[in-house]
Every structure is written in structure tokens, then in C-alpha cells.
Design brief:
mainly beta; 2 domains; three-stranded antiparallel β-sheet; Secreted protein; DUF6355
Length: about 110
């Protein structure tokens, strides 16, 4: 594993510009202290038939319009988190968006 991993020691640094140089002084945290770097997925259609519903912890369910490669539109209800829309829709999914519906029962609802 390289020295540039997602887990890095917590470091305090102070940089001071000096002429054409920038001088930095770093002091490491106490032994064993680490900082986690979290990579976050965006919300909405992620590509490859996946949709992520970010609900802010409310547990809400939303109704989506899902488009396949031929332009057909289907309805799909998703709960919080990432949902794979592809296994249910026969042709490749090319897009998905919220159509304004809320409080539906999670799963495939059929053609729009």
C-alpha cells in the first residue's frame, strides 16, 4: 500500500510564503490518531441502472420515472440508499428521475 492511502495521520500544518518559496512546518498528532477520508456518492441517477435516494434520515420513499434505451418510461418506487433498477427493466436503463410522487410501495410499478 502506498503512503497516499485513504487513512492518513492527522497533521497540523502551517505554511508561510517567503519570497518565491513556501515554507511549511507540520506537527503530527499523538500516536495512533487517524483521520478518515470519506468518499461520498452523489444523489440521483448514478449510471449503469443505479439510483441513489438521499432522504436525510427521514425514511421517505419516492416514485421515479425510469427510461430504457428505446425511450420507454417505467415507474419505479425507491427507498433510501442505492437501488439497482436494471434487473427488473428488460432493456438497458439510460436515465431515472423523481417524478414528484412520494410514499409509494418500493419496487417496480410498470409502464408509465
Amino acid at each position: 500500500m502506498s503512503s497516499w492511502s485513504l487513512r492518513a495521520k492527522a497533521v497540523r500544518a502551517m505554511c508561510v510564503p517567503f519570497a518565491a518559496l513556501t515554507i511549511c512546518v507540520a506537527a503530527a498528532s499523538p500516536a495512533g490518531a487517524t483521520t478518515e477520508v470519506q468518499l461520498r456518492e452523489s444523489c440521483g441517477y448514478l449510471g449503469w441502472g443505479e439510483y441513489r435516494h438521499c432522504d436525510g434520515g427521514t425514511g421517505s420513499r419516492v416514485d421515479l420515472d425510469v427510461e430504457d434505451v428505446w425511450g420507454n418510461i417505467y415507474r419505479y418506487c425507491v427507498g433510501p440508499g442505492t437501488t439497482d433498477l436494471q434487473p427488473v427493466i428488460r432493456w438497458r436503463v439510460t436515465g431515472a428521475w423523481w417524478n414528484g410522487g412520494v410514499g409509494c410501495y418500493p419496487g417496480f410499478e410498470g409502464p408509465a
